[in-house]
Specification:
Helices cover about 35% and strands about 15% of the residues. The protein is α+β, with helices and mostly antiparallel strands. Strands 1-2 form a two-stranded antiparallel sheet. The protein has a two-stranded antiparallel ribbon with strand order 3-4. A hairpin with a 6-residue loop joins strand 1 and strand 2. The N and C termini lie far apart (about 70 Å).
């Protein structure tokens, strides 16, 4: 490919097709194939594997995005996060499980400080009215709950 000045936008770039840069070519000449998406069943431009862009990203990129967000939010690697959030330590629910830092310090990521809780038990633990039920249940299961993480009545 040759270096040239695009006649449409004036950028010094690489020549693509029809005498334009890639961006201008896509704006003026490129027409993506419109198909019925396998997932949402709407007529949209084909991205890959029979899916529109949104559905493709949902199907093939969602787990990568979640792993990146968990690493950023909790500073925990993917393997540790998945192991801890496999099921709620209180009730065993395994559909939706959230990560909880026992001492409420996000910087303390030792496995002894991390537990998986279903949304109900996680909310109960953070709500003063029902917190003692969950704390008693965790203590019965052998977890060490620091006094400074308990909401006083």
């Amino acid at each position: 490919m040759d270096h040239f000045i695009c006649p449409r936008c004036g950028k010094d770039t690489l020549k693509h097709a029809k005498g334009l840069c890639v961006t201008c070519y896509k704006k003026e000449h490129w027409k993506p194939k419109v198909v019925k998406c396998k997932r949402c069943e709407e007529m949209k431009p084909l991205h890959a594997k029979g899916f529109c862009m949104g559905c493709y990203n949902f199907k093939f990129q969602l787990q990568n995005i979640k792993n990146h967000q968990n690493k950023k939010r909790y500073n925990v690697d993917e393997e540790t996060y998945n192991k801890i959030t496999a099921k709620c330590v209180v009730c065993g629910f395994n559909k939706i499980v959230q990560l909880h830092h026992i001492d409420k310090n996000r910087e303390n990521n030792s496995e002894k400080n991390l537990i998986g809780l279903c949304p109900n038990h996680h909310l109960m633990l953070h709500h003063g009215k029902h917190q003692h039920e969950i704390i008693n249940s965790l203590k019965e299961k052998g977890f060490q709950i620091p006094e400074n993480s308990i909401i006083k009545d």
